[in-house]
Amino acid sequence: MFPSKVNRLIQRLLLSFKRHRYGDAAMGKSSSDSCSSQLVLGIETSCDDTGAAVLSETGAILGESLHSQKEVHLRTGGIIPVVAQQLHREHIERVVQEALDQSGVDPAQLSAVAATVKPGLALSLAVGLEFSQSFVRRHCTPFIPVHHMEAHALTIRMLHAVSFPFLVLLVSGGHSLLAVARGVDDFLQLGRTLDEAPGDALDKVARRLSLIKHPRCSTLSGGQAIELLAKDGDRMRFPFKTPMGQTYDCCFSFAGLRNQVNMTIEKKEAEEGIERGTLLSCVNDIAAATQHTVACHLAKRTHRAILFCKANGLLPSLTPTLVVSGGVASNQYIRKALGVIAEATGLRLLCPPAKFCTDNGVMIAWNGVERLREGKGILHPNVDVTYEPKAPLGVDLTSQVKAAAIRVPSIRMNIS
Length: 416
Ligand code: KG4
Ligand code: ZN
Known about the structure:
Layout: H1 3-26, H2 31-37, E1 39-44, E2 49-56, E3 61-68, H3 70-76, H4 81-103, E4 112-118, H5 122-139, E5 143-147, H6 148-154, H7 156-159, E6 166-171, E7 176-183, E8 186-192, H8 198-208, H9 222-230, H10 255-272, H11 283-311, E9 321-325, H12 332-345, E10 348-350, H13 354-357, H14 361-374, E11 395-396, H15 398-404
Parallel strand pairs: 1-4, 4-5, 6-9, 8-11, 9-10
Antiparallel strand pairs: 1-2, 2-3, 6-7, 7-8
Residues 148, 152, 172, 326, 359 line the site of zinc ion.
């Protein structure tokens, strides 16, 4: 390393640690000075999106770029990890460069680089981590390893004034969990999926229905396709059973629902005398009923989590907040269902706009900003970091929630 590079690195590390220990005022800087001086590059590659963004300390997005692999995986009927890895490799350099170019920020000006290191697909995580580590070493920039789900949970704080603690429901293609966010790296896990995630279940139902052949759905993810078709469907036509009705905890299960839907599809194919792979005439109704059941299941478990938090004083009495994020949270019907629960329990419901619900580089950069502000998890670029495909979020309270066995009053889900 050249001496000038070493000096620059030492200065940057000292600045972030001093801020943490003494605050900006003690360093004789106004908050606007610090806003202009702290810049973070975020890099996301945990699944099938290659994302990068440059953020200021206040959360201003100075540059962003995203490459989605969705269309490739739609054609192959699901994510093939080696294909995802190859596509990340092909696009990561361009995506990061685009974000930097758009921001007009030189790598030497960055206060830190934040990258997703857990949880996710091993082969995908490896590409982002390898790229980030070589980038920070080349430019002598501190490195911030990021937990993908923490990043989803905290994105809302970039957009709204939300103080800790708040309740968060994270629903995506890979995850389904309920947690209390108490701090940047302090979470209590109240519930998680026991089998598959809601986005995964919706993607599989969409594949089973061959929605890729539907003229309105050919470029949409499974969840998006189900939402679109459900608008013209009758959800009452197929009364699927809401999962886990007799289990009084906050965990989720979607495999059984998918089984119910598959059996209905098979029956309808036989009735209509059509082969698997042909579009059913009742496809809108199946989409509507599936979406409704997913929404009711998410709403019920979230309702119980709210009651558990209230009983245990886990949320503030002033403006208690429910945050919903992750790819599935961009579904308007599901948001409305959660809105019904929030209203009934007196919580404020906040959801990031769709582009921040699905995976992106901005949420990773924001997590870097939050950690930089608090001086948490900032590493010297030469520290070796490993990725972790499996990484639970927070302290596990699921058995305490189950033991509390809270009965949830029934609420009518009249959603238009
Ligand atoms: O958060 P995300 O981009 O990636 C991870 O899984 O981490 O979420 C993608 C998932 C996919 O399963 C997709 O079908 C689902 O989110 N999704 C939706 C909608 N948009 C995306 N599910 C329901 N309704 C939507 N509008
Ligand atoms: Zn995600």
